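G., the chain you wanted modeled:
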Amino acid sequence: MVPREAFFTRGVGRHKERLQSFEWALRQAGVAQYNLVRVSSIYPPNCRIISRAKGAAKLAAGEIVYAVLADTSTNEKGRLIFSGVGLAVPAKGDSYGYISEHHCYGMTAKEGADYVEDMAASMLASTLGIRFDPETGYDERKEIYRMSGKIVRTRAMVQTATGGKNGMWTTVVAAVVFVP
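Predicted structure as tokens:
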């Protein structure tokens, strides 16, 4: 099976139990009704990004659904948590791209979006033979990637939240969900 479509989604959940906070985050992301199978980071050739609503309309409750999923949880009051996915798509539609996932503590949405986009673009650039210095800043590398004409677009979907009161669990998820 090679997915022809995919959608981005994200969510936040809060509950006194960690597992249930994860469930609520999946519900907010609109994917709790599927049997999610985590997959690695390859974006299929000729795959098209569609809206979450269009993707969900093509899936059935209980269906086994493949996704690149990042999730983070905390029960520490005020602790910033981050989950994000990034995408880099090659100019040649018949070539594969990359999806990155990252989850951590203390990263803002802006920092995280740049980070996951950069990871996906760097992985794709290395397979396309684009020469770059990994020690330079992402903005500089982004220009190199664009000027090469080999990477068409990048994007990110991220979710942040801070831990709640009284030991309540907070979970954030971000995902690219594949539609068969």
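The first strand starts at residue 5 and ends at 15.

Shout if anything looks off.
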